[in-house]
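Subgroup meeting minutes
Present: P.N., E.W., G.H.
Scribe: E.W.

1. P.N. recapped why we're keeping a running log of single-chain structure predictions: easier to compare across weeks, and new members can see raw inputs and outputs side by side.
2. G.H. added today's entry (60 aa).
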Amino acid sequence: MAQFLKFVGIICTMICLLIFLLYAQSPQPRFDHISPEDGLSNNSISCILQESIGFILVMA
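Output recorded in log:
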């Protein structure tokens, strides 16, 4: 009986570790290339800021 409980404990630990590892992976960041054809005033970027709510401000 003790071996069975040890086996169940090991299985539960492995399942918890697997779930943690699966959810710990961050998604790939998304990059969009912006050009003057998209409305950028020129190809030179002078400053990049991130607002408190997550928006990225690009200053050309």
